[in-house]
Amino acid sequence: MQTSLSRKYMVALVGLSLVLFACNIFTPTAGQVTVLSTVTVLSSPTGETPTITPTDTLTATPTPTFTITPTNTATQTPTATPIAYGPSGFPANVDPLTGQTVSDANILNRRPVIIKVSNFPANGRPHAGLSFADIVFEYYIGEGTNRFAALYYGQDSTKVGPVRSGRRVDAQLGRMYQSILGYDSADQTLVNPIIVKALGNRAISLNSFTCPALCDTGAHTVTSVFANTSELSQFAASHQGVINQRQKLDGMSFDSRTPTAGQIANTVDIFFNLYDQGEWRYNPSTGQYLRWIESTDSNNKVTLVQLTDRDTGQQLSFSNIVVVYAVYNQIAPTLHDINLWYDQSGRRAILFRDGQAVDGIWKSGGTDSPLRFYNSQNAPMPFKPGNTWMVFMGVNSKLQQASSGQWIFQFYLP
What is the pTM of this model? Predict the structure, then answer.
């Protein structure tokens, strides 16, 4: 009996010792804490470092209470809200020719202004004010040379030029974009009657009364005339009797999202001939194309140089470059018409944006409506919000594509 009691006593004593020993191990001393916590690894769709998030935070006793705070937590940058407008229903403060919001919607309560800008002779470069245009139209004028028509609507430029003569296609552009046209003379027998007939008092040529809207610097050369777009708007209303109010300019569509089905387009080359060429190079850091242009030295060696804006000193950069295939009708070696008004055949147009090429077609919107652009699914072609450089190439023009993303266009008539 005594032996049995002794055994029970010994077992109880051993059990109590084990309990005390266990308490000694797992009870934290002051300044120490042991926490067991479950963590969940969240996968990231954008490839960022995963975020580690504790699901249970245990607090050890006695007080003070300790809480585990996760470190090195990756923060995902929120995606910008996509911007999409058009081809109609633009808000009152959104420019329908750029898809961008303007700081003062009152500037849109007028007609656009188109200024004819010379590219030859080359001593008139660098051009002034092209970087402020909503759209710049580029086209062939004969003898291997080209010319620009710069359209201003969402913003103005105090100096645009050198201003040169009008061409037959300017009558079409002026009507389609409901604009005022500023130019320096025109062919009296063929061009001027067409321009005036199409645009009426909205066609304004340089004369002794047009300054400060259209002015000669005093040199009286083919590169000494410049325009002020804001002044030309006021001149058209006050001296020409133009009803200068907001027009319906529907037709273009804009989407800030990068296309997903485009082809690589790092450079876009436009060749009218060896001594008249331009190149657009995509800059990924800005999302725009930068302009380069030919320069010929005294030995007739041609190199490409940056094309800057005389007003800003900065290289020209555009959000969209679009090549439009159109029919040229040659009337004389230096006199052409381009069939824009009535072409409903759906001719090819290639849009370059965000380093990609989007293939599609263009159609006339009618004599009094901007050009329409469609992608291969016949949906509105999504231009990037911003400015556009539009090149009219003859339908026989050639295209070469390199695997490096270089697109080379060689102009041919018609």
Answer: 0.81
346: tokens are 């759906």
Please state the rounded mean pLDDT for residues 282-288: 98
3-class DSSP state of 320:
strand
Q: What are the pLDDT digits (tens) for 199-249?
A: 999 999 999 999 999 999 999 999 999 999 999 999 999 999 999 999 999
Are 131 and 386 in contact by the 8 Å Cβ rule? The answer is: no
Contact 164, 226 (CB under 8 A): no
Torsion of CA 88, 90, 92, 97, to 10 degrees: -90
Give CB contacts under 8 A, 24+ apart, made by 208-217.
209/239, 210/235, 213/182, 214/163, 214/182, 214/184
Q: Domain segments of the chain: what residues? A: 252-322+347-387+394-410
CA distance 278 to 389: 12
Residue 268: count other Cβ atoms within 10 Å of its Cβ.
25
Contacts of 223 (CB under 8 A, 6+ apart): 118, 121, 123, 124, 161, 162
Nearest to 254 by CA among 383, 373, 376: 383
> Can you read off the two tokens belonging to residue 251?
């037709």
Where does 103-248 have alpha helices with state H? 168-176, 191-199, 229-239
C-alpha separations of 161 from 53, 152, 179 in Å: 61, 13, 18
Integer Cα distance of 51 and 53 in angstroms: 6
DSSP-derived secondary structure for 188-217: TTTHHHHHHHHHGGGEEE--TT-TTTEEE-
Q: How far apart are CA 72 and CA 50, in angstroms?
A: 10
For residue 380, give the DSSP letter: B
Helix (H) or strand (E) holding 263: strand 263-264
- Among 80-84, 137-141, 230-234, where is mean pLDDT lowest? 80-84
* pLDDT of 167 above 50: yes
Calpha distance 288→307 (Å, rounded): 14
